[in-house]
Design goal:
Layout (H helix, E strand, L loop, with lengths): L1 H8 L1 H14 L9 H12 L6 H23 L8 H6 L20 H14 L4 E2 L12 E4 L4 E9 L3 E11 L3 E10 L7 E9 L3 E9 L13 H9 L24 E5 L3 H23 L8 H18 L2 H9 L1 H12 L41
Antiparallel strand pairs: 1-3, 2-3, 3-4, 4-5, 5-6, 6-7, 7-8
């Protein structure tokens, strides 16, 4: 590369390189009255009475220098943000709440920090994915200063995962949320790793961590997996709850070894939930590494992921909560264009299914975020 740079810095080569590109694109000309000089220079260079030996020398320089320079430029690294730069853009990891009255550390921030470290240390070709939709809406951060609530989002990809999104929602002691979803590269035909951790008033807690199946039957995946996480779950009686079928169909997108818990003892977060979460994340990556990729299944897997996204978007609590905080349009785009970016939006006027996660009354009841009667979950 140094040889190419030196050659380009020589006056003759630089002049020839400029003239070469001026002929192809007059806007390449530089300096005062550039376009005027371009026309005259090109005309003089290619006049028939120009000394043929000089023209041959220039032609040889151009033919050797330009292809080499263009080839070298392909090897230059793309200018992108690093993983840590994306994380730090909005001050993460936060050390205190947006609500200055809260003196405690943010409850789920150790989960965020551990996951960031784990990804950096264990994933291949980890890269930043921008948190935007095709309208240019930025989902990386939003804040409601009046109501003391803020949300931050990061998104990444790697050789093992096509998408890993992370969300932290801080509304003081009223609500703390850590959410992450890991989508395996579709060549692997494996379950999605889903993580939902919520706390309300530091008195009521909800936790879900699961290898979420994209098929109705476990054996339809590229490898079976419940036997890998069962020993982890067996260690924690506090995380063996079952969700109500009033809101979700447990046979859809939930495994038999799901970590599920509603509790009121905050000690469970650090004592049980944190080590179990780490075990599930580590085991999920091990599952990918021990599964043979099958590129021919990619299209089928993507269709299953789309069904998973649609099912999840229809029932996600973020729509009602964030519509109240940040506006209806932002909230709906956030759910469908970022959280579950391959989901199909419901038809105009359709009544979404209720969700249980925010700990409030069913939709349609006083204080509920949405409207409509409870209904059984339907297959996407």
């Amino acid at each position: 590369m140094k040889a190419v740079q030196l050659l380009l810095l020589s006056p003759a080569a630089a002049w020839a390189y400029t003239l070469h590109h001026q002929q192809r694109n007059p806007l390449f000309a530089v300096g005062r009255d550039a376009q005027r000089r371009t026309r005259s220079s090109v005309q003089s260079l290619y006049k028939s009475n120009v000394d043929s030996s000089a023209r041959d020398i220039l032609t040889e320089i151009i033919s050797k220098t330009i292809p080499a320079a263009e080839e070298e430029s392909k090897l230059l690294p793309k200018i992108t943000r690093s993983v840590r730069e994306a994380e730090a853009e909005h001050g993460m990891p936060w050390k205190s709440s947006i609500d200055s009255n809260v003196k405690d550390e943010l409850l789920y921030m150790p989960f965020w920090e551990w996951q960031m470290n784990f990804m950096e240390e264990n994933l291949t070709d980890l890269e930043v994915v921008e948190c935007q939709n095709n309208k240019g809406t930025d989902f990386s951060f939003n804040v409601n200063e009046k109501r003391k609530a803020r949300i931050v989002n990061c998104c990444f990809s790697s050789k093992e995962y096509s998408k890993i999104r992370m969300t932290y929602y801080d509304a003081g002691d009223t609500t703390q949320v850590f959410n992450a979803v890991w989508y395996p590269n579709p060549e692997y035909n494996l379950p999605v790793l889903g993580i939902d951790l919520l706390a309300f008033n530091r008195k009521k807690f909800l936790a879900i961590v699961d290898f979420q199946p994209i098929h109705d039957e476990e054996q339809d995946h590229g490898a079976t997996y419940e036997h890998l996480i069962e020993p982890i779950r067996e260690n924690y009686e506090s995380l063996k709850g079952r969700m109500s079928s009033k809101f979700y169909d447990e046979t859809q997108h939930f495994s038999q070894q799901m970590l599920f818990a509603r509790f009121d003892d905050e000690n469970i977060v650090s004592r049980d939930l944190f080590p179990a979460f780490r075990g599930y994340v580590q085991t999920h990556l091990d599952l990918i590494r021990n599964t043979e990729p099958k590129p021919e299944q990619t299209e089928m897997v993507l269709s299953k992921v789309k069904a998973y996204d649609t099912y999840s978007a229809d029932r996600d609590p973020a729509t009602g909560l964030f519509a109240a905080m940040y506006g209806k349009e932002w909230a709906e785009d956030f759910v469908h264009d970022f959280l579950f970016s391959t989901s199909e939006r419901p038809a105009e006027g359709a009544i979404p299914p209720p969700n249980p996660f925010m700990g409030g009354p069913p939709r349609g009841a006083p204080g509920a975020p949405g409207g409509g009667p409870p209904q059984q979950a339907q297959r996407p």
